[in-house]
């Protein structure tokens, strides 16, 4: 039929050029859209069927190109790119804004006592552990014991770090102590992400050529992927946790803001909600999700294997995770 949608649209790749920051930003604004969390199971399943059928050469009657791309982004927001499994809802990147809005607000408000710091850091790191596992790279499963050990290591290390920073901050001016939550989150990301993705560091993640032919698994690629994700996650926290302390410190000096603790947190709360909406996709866009590295940077045995099976390949590609 002349009106049937062409099968030449490459929905394996994002709609926008991933070689530019703006292209990646447009892509992640779609993937991290908080409204995707509210989509029903039926809507997600319909998107999955449309995408998988199209990849198999089957076009739903009457399907338009815009509807196809919309289905792809709904699919990408809820299904893992390597395993194809539906991701746990609070672990999806589209849940980052509502979840971080709640947790960050509590961390910025209840930071003065040790029990409060311990509790909210534990809540935050538990949430981060879910996100880090959900958005891991590769398709190799983790056993319950591996997952449990990773969770305990990640959350314990992060909470201990937060307490250490709080102890240091108690001897510093109030404005400095307000940055304890941000410093703790930044340090904890450096602990939580590697621990929750430690299997990748040990066994490697899948690397492919430019045509998506799998060439092997690389721990070197995993290290690069995890570093990029850590940098992105710390970047996400900067506008939400580094700016509100300055605002709160200024507001609390004004008499009318001292009347109510709720009032004194209203305006900075609006600030970090606004920041989170933009920080999540923009920081995800710092690096392409489909990252790359030269074959010469891989492990020697994998380099030799690639030279044998694909001698013309000089660059490999991999999903860095989010």
Automatic annotation (TrEMBL):
Any Pfam family the entry gives: SFXNs
Annotated catalysed reactions: L-serine(in) = L-serine(out)
GO terms for cellular component: mitochondrial inner membrane
Major location category of this protein: mitochondrion
InterPro entries: Mtc
Transmembrane regions listed in the UniProt entry: none
Physiological role: Mitochondrial serine transporter that mediates transport of serine into mitochondria, an important step of the one-carbon metabolism pathway. Mitochondrial serine is converted to glycine and formate, which then exits to the cytosol where it is used to generate the charged folates that serve as one-carbon donors.
Record family assignment: Belongs to the sideroflexin family.
Protein name: Sidoreflexin
């Amino acid at each position: 039929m002349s009106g049937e949608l062409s099968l030449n649209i490459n929905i394996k790749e994002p709609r926008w050029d991933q070689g530019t920051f703006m292209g990646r930003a447009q892509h992640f604004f779609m993937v991290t859209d908080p409204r995707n969390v509210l989509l029903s199971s039926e809507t997600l399943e319909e998107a999955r069927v449309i995408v998988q059928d199209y990849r198999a050469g089957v076009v739903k009657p009457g399907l338009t190109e815009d509807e196809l791309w919309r289905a792809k982004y709904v699919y990408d927001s809820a299904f893992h790119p390597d395993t194809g499994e539906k991701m746990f809802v609070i672990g999806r990147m589209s849940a980052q804004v509502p979840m971080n809005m709640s947790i960050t607000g509590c961390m910025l408000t209840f930071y003065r006592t040790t029990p409060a710091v311990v509790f909210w850091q534990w809540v935050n790191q538990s949430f981060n552990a879910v996100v880090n596992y959900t958005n891991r790279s590769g398709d190799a499963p983790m056993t319950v014991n591996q997952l449990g050990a990773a969770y305990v290591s990640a959350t314990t290390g992060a909470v201990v770090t937060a307490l250490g920073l709080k102890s240091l901050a108690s001897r510093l001016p109030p404005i400095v102590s307000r940055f304890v939550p941000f410093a703790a989150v930044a340090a904890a990301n450096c602990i939580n992400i590697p621990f929750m993705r430690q299997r990748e560091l040990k066994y490697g993640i899948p690397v492919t050529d430019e045509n998506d032919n799998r060439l092997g698994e690389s721990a070197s690629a995993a290290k690069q992927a995890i570093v990029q994700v850590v940098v992105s996650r710390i970047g996400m926290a900067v506008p939400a946790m580094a700016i509100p302390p300055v605002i709160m410190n200024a507001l609390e000096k004004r008499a009318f803001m001292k009347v109510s603790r709720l009032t004194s947190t209203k305006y900075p709360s609006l600030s970090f909600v606004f920041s989170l909406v933009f920080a999540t996709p923009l920081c995800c866009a710092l690096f392409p999700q489909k990252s790359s590295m030269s074959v010469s940077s891989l492990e020697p045995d994998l380099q030799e294997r690639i030279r044998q099976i694909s001698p013309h390949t000089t660059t490999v590609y991999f999903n860095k995770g989010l």
